[in-house]
């Protein structure tokens, strides 16, 4: 049996029009958000993820079970003779999900003979390809070696650890099969705040947009989606960041978001953002308030 594991519904809709041999698994999780502790795709994992997504994204337990968990449970039924084809893109959102699946496969005490990844163009998502492009993508899929899988397992252990020591070193020595992993993981580290401003890259971008002009939620998210490079985020992720900033740095008036006085001060550098209330926010296995990331010097800095 060939199992095609797809990164979401848009790619699945195109995939199924090609009548590929095999079965599909649609991976709708967003493991880039929240903690992913413990063995993957187990009852305790599903319970933890259900609680997190319900609290932060208003996804009910019934929705999670029907839309996400039902698909993910199929991963527990893969057999050694099965071929596994992974349809994922080169952004942070997809790469985290991809590495989780590969780590799960290596830790499942089963040796799979055929595992491959679809190799898309750098700036083109799977949903942007035409129906007739999918057979070519499938035929040009990239087989993964045992070393690739071992790296994925080590990567996932480091990504979900609360210790970011040597994480940069690990991503700099990624195998060629994961061509853009370094860039996407720099985008991950950029979710930690800058030591001078207390803001991370995307938070600062939102403040800059609103400093230029007040914007409706629709227009603000539209600008963020167009500007992003390696993140691969959607509306849900940006809405969550905006909600977080709305505690004190931005405010909504007349259906538009504006900078607050404090937001302007933080953006100009006369005031440092205090993110101590965000001690619950996990980025991989580390808590946001435990680290800074200096993007200029490419340094992960543990807070004292």
- CATH uppermost class of the largest domain: Alpha Beta
The parts where pLDDT drops under 50 for at least 5 residues are none
Determine the oligomeric state from the structure.
single chain
Radius of gyration from CA coordinates: 20 Å
CATH overall fold name of the largest domain: Dna Topoisomerase Vi A Subunit, Chain: A, domain 2
Structural class based on helices, strands and sheet pairing: alpha/beta
Q: Tell me the count of domains.
A: 2
- The CATH architecture category of the largest domain equals 3-Layer(aba) Sandwich
Strand composition percent: 5-15%
Helix proportion range: 40-55%
Along the chain, the helix and strand elements come as EHEHHEHEHEHHHHHHEEHEEEE
Largest beta-sheet characterization: 5 strands, mixed
Count of alpha/pi helices = 12
The mean pLDDT is 94
Q: Give the termini distance in whole angstroms.
A: 52 Å
Please provide the count of β strands.
Answer: 11
Shape: globular
Strand adjacency order, main sheet: 2-1-3-4-5
């Amino acid at each position: 049996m060939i199992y095609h594991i797809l990164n979401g519904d848009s790619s699945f809709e195109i995939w199924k029009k090609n009548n590929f041999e095999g079965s599909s698994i649609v991976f709708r999780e967003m493991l880039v958000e929240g903690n992913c502790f413990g063995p993957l795709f187990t009852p305790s994992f599903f319970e933890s993820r259900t609680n997190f997504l319900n609290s932060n994204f208003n996804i009910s337990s019934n929705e999670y079970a029907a839309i996400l968990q039902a698909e993910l449970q199929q991963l527990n039924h893969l057999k050694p003779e099965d071929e596994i084809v992974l349809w994922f893109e080169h952004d942070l959102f997809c790469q985290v999900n991809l590495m989780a699946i590969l780590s799960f496969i290596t830790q499942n005490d089963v040796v799979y003979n055929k595992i491959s990844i679809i190799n898309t163009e750098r700036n083109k998502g799977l949903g942007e390809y035409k129906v007739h492009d999918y057979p070519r993508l499938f035929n040009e899929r990239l087989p993964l070696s045992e070393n690739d899988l071992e790296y994925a397992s080590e990567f996932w252990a480091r990504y979900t650890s609360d210790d970011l020591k040597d994480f940069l070193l690990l991503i700099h020595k990624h195998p060629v099969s994961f061509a853009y992993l370094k860039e996407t993981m720099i985008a991950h580290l950029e979710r930690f705040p800058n030591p001078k401003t207390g803001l991370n890259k995307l938070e600062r971008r939102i403040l800059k947009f609103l400093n230029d002009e007040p914007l409706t939620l629709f227009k603000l998210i539209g600008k963020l989606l167009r500007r992003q490079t390696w993140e691969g985020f959607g509306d849900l992720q940006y809405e969550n960041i905006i909600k977080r900033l709305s505690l004190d740095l931005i405010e909504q008036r007349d259906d538009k978001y504006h900078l607050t006085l404090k937001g302007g001060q933080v953006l100009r550098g006369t005031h440092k953002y205090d993110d101590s209330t965000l001690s619950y926010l996990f980025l991989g296995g580390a808590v946001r308030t435990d680290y800074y990331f200096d993007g200029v010097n490419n340094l992960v800095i543990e807070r004292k």
